[in-house]
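tool_call: predict_structure(chain=1)
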Amino acid sequence: MEPNLTTVRDRRALLAKARQQIDAEDKELEVAERALTRLAAGTGTASGSGSANGAATPVTQRDLVISTLKHRADPWVTSSADLADEIEFTHGTLIKPTSLLPLLTTLKNEGIIRRDAQNRIVLAERV
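tool_result:
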């Protein structure tokens, strides 16, 4: 079969439909990922255990940062502002730069996070 304009257009239409399906599934997976991240952070610990009486441990800003970095599909975050945006979107908690930046410095000094030459942020255990 010799390709002609009709076969090219038909193939492009099939590809466009496949892209739409992939985009729709990706959006569903993003929602699921964010929900799972929120649930993981809601326990207050990485292992998911609560306090001795079964109540959930309060979630700290540190917990939110670590959980967000741990459960992202891409381990690297471009900037602290992007990390703050993701935490707010995922967990509904705004961490102001005046709190986040010193926290990131502390986490870096403790070896929990790392920064690369572009100043991107990653959880140390993921690299």
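agent: The first helix runs from residue 5 to 42. Proceeding to next step.
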